[in-house]
Amino acid sequence: MKNLLLVFWLFLLNGLLFSQNGVRILVLDKQTEAPLPFVKLIGDKGTNAISDIDGIIEVEIMMDENYTFRFFEYKDTIISGENLSPSKRKEAVVFLTPDSQSFDEVVIRPGENPAHRIIKNAMRERKNNDPLRNNSFRYSAYAKFYLTANLEDNIRRDTIQDSSTLRLIDFMDRQYFFLTETASIRTFSPPNYDKEEVVSYKVSGVNNPMFASLFNQLQSFSFYENTFSVNEKEYINPIAPGSINRYLFILEDTTFQEKDTTFVIRFRPKKGKNFEGLKGFLYINSNGWAVERVIAEPYDEQLSFQIKIIQEYKFTAGKKWFPYKLSTEIEFPSIQINAHNALGRSNLYIKDVEFDVDVPNKRFNAIRMEVKEDAGDEPELLDKARGTSSSEKEALTYQVIDSIGKAENFEKWLDVLTIASTGKIPFRKVSFPLNQL
């Protein structure tokens, strides 16, 4: 009996000490509190996970295991499983501190660059992995764009002396400066049938469908074309033919997941090369040599704005890798909010992907996107696409900005801007060209 009690006690104690707990971890930049995508979590007992584009890791945590959070250009952060336990909090928050290390200090030794083999494989399989080739598809999407201010190093309240900056932080904790959300359904059939219908939208300050998709087109849908579009400007893709002669590639990390391997490759244009290029990180999966994740931004440091794109792919329906999270972050130094640069962030979430769908009308139509007539009056569809109701921050943004928009007649000014953008003034059935008046 004593032996049975001892075995039971050891079993119970082992369960308490070594039990696994599912936990949601949010990884943030310590200075800006911005979410950090693709941060690698490494447990000293073999646990591995990577944060998504929202900086979220959902993983089983062991109480007796220590976890290292690792990301390029940030210092490693080690946290015990006990401090990540869900018993401590509903959501664990981990801050990473930027580390100033220079990419130019990397030395390439004589011989074959190991990154080139991986890049060549990705180039060879581009047409097979391109989501806009080979298969028709349909998916549902939820998109969100918000405008806030980039406070950079001024996050710590105890170091801030300026009362206006403190008020700005309080304001941004409560709401955004601008917010728009859309729910849509897209159907595509190669080579050129492409139709997206916005079924629901909401814009702070106005009720105009013009904003329904304006901020969802800041980057190309996938990372496989010869040129990649960022804010309507074309850049040479690092996996386009001939890119090994244009770009410097560095194999930074390798992660093994069951039968597949993910290779993390840093890239930037080679010195002395003069072309519109990108810099960032490519995550190439050995399953089909497909792009699994990408972080990229223009290499040109003379731009009047700073923009970064993030794409995340998932092997879908056992058929192919397909985008399921796209993010764009754009900073406007020319737009100041209380002496801080305006910062816009656009996120697109894709779900319910179907391949080889029947498209009854495959004729090309120049109108790629349409807004459903009553899309502005379908909030329940937006909640369904979002997966939840509006947060307090989102609800307050709509409430405050809508009241300001009504008082200042934003709709009228939007009509004026729309007319100005066409270059014509409509009057009954006649339009007068502005440049000929």
Notable traits:
437 residues; alpha+beta; eleven-stranded mixed β-sheet; four-stranded antiparallel β-sheet; 21% helix; disordered N terminus
Number of helices: 9
Rg estimate, integer Å: 25 Å
Major beta sheet summary:
11 strands, mixed
What percentage of amino acids are in beta strands? 35-45%
Work out the oligomeric state of the chains in this entry. Answer: single chain
Mean pLDDT: 81
Spans of at least 5 consecutive residues with low confidence? 1-20, 102-106
Number of strands: 22
Note the overall shape: globular
Q: What is the straight-line distance between the termini? A: 102 Å
Structural class: alpha+beta
Percentage of helical residues?
10-25%
Q: Strand order, biggest sheet?
A: 13-14-15-16-17-18-19-8-9-10-20
